[in-house]
Amino acid sequence: MDLFSQSVGADFVDIKGFDASIGGSPSNIALGSSRLGMRVALLTAVSEDNVGKFVLYHLQNAGVETKYIPFKPNTRTGLAILGVQPPDRFPLVFYRDNPADIYLTIQDVVATPIAQSRALLLSGTALSRGSCRDATLFAAEFANANGVPTFMDLDLRPDQWDYPQACGTSIRSILPLLDVVIGTEEEFYAALATNSEAVMLGKMVTDAQREELEDLVRAMLVQTQSPDAWVLKRGEHGVRIYLRDGSTVSAAGFQVETVNTVGAGDAFASGLVYGYLKGWNWHKSARMGNACGAIVVSRHGCAAALPKEHEVHDFVTERGGF
Are 100 and 77 in contact (CB under 8 A)? Predict the structure, then answer.
């Protein structure tokens, strides 16, 4: 559940009210994908209280299949409280003490229709705590065995990892089961760098680390068991995709006035998967993702800002097409 500041531009201590909505990267991606016309089921978990019921109600109203989402007793649904101070300050506070979703189990995964799905998207944060880590690894393994393309949005949340090194160790353990990895420079570096002293979760990469990152990604691509595509989000510089054949694909972003950046990456993932399932090439798929992200950036809210399919196509057409 997200509580999103209604007081745009106000310091956090001066916020007068909040809008409540669903939140969390996997939930946002599911909602964004549903709004683009995809048929989506979500696997997460919620608490047996009114907050859990709130989340399920709003997911169902958005067209997301929720019948695979279990209630976990004696837990709380995760909560995020967000401030909005454009263009570059969006303070975010997480409340994830004993959250329901970290208790997902392999049996919860078994109950889902992964084998009948056209794609599976996982969150890197799901590897950070509890039995959810085993469930995530099993889901990737099961999808791989059934030929289901598997995406992972690294979704780095520094406060969810006990140690910086644990993030990279966990991500690297699942890489052989993935087809596509999506992340920022900071997320890629945290996932791939084995120099423990250099890994500082949530910190901007240095110029030296940026050069090292290029080598780390290319070294990964030549390994037999590695994702086929590494989708690097670079903010205003657009997207660069590293492919197994050694080539790269660049896709420019769209210039908009920034109102809010929270949720833009989730919108991007929805758009990228949309293009992939349409059979589009990587450039067009990334441009679709960039358009979804740009629309969210230009609106107030997070889940509420995720665009519908016709809105994205109209947005792109007005700017000269893909």
Answer: yes
Domain membership of residue 109 (yes or no) is yes
Whether residue 280 lies inside any domain: the answer is yes
> Which pLDDT tens digit goes with each residue over 118-166?
999 999 999 999 999 999 999 999 999 999 999 999 998 888 888 878 8
**DSSP E strand boundaries for the chain:** 2-5, 18-21, 46-47, 71-72, 79-82, 92-95, 120-123, 150-153, 180-184, 229-233, 239-243, 248-251
pLDDT digits (tens, 9 = 90+) for 251-299: 999 999 999 889 999 999 999 999 999 999 999 999 999 999 999 999 9
User: Within 10 A of 276 (CB to CB), how many other CB atoms are there?
Assistant: 23
Q: What is 77-108 written as a DSSP string? A: --EEEE--BTTTB--EEEE-SSBGGGG--HHH
Kindly report the CATH number assigned to the domain that includes residue 234: 3.40.1190.20
- CA distances 218 to 15, 174, 249, Å, are 45, 18, 14
If one counts the domains in the chain, the total is 1
In a domain, 56, yes or no: no
| pTM for the structure as a whole | 0.95
pLDDT of res. 199: 62
Parent domain of 196 = 26-47+100-318
Output the CA torsion sign for 253, 254, 258, 262. Answer: negative
Give the Cβ contact number of residue 255 at 10 Å: 8
- Greater model confidence, 208 or 2: 2
CA distances from 39 to 3, 42, 45, 216 (A): 27, 10, 20, 35
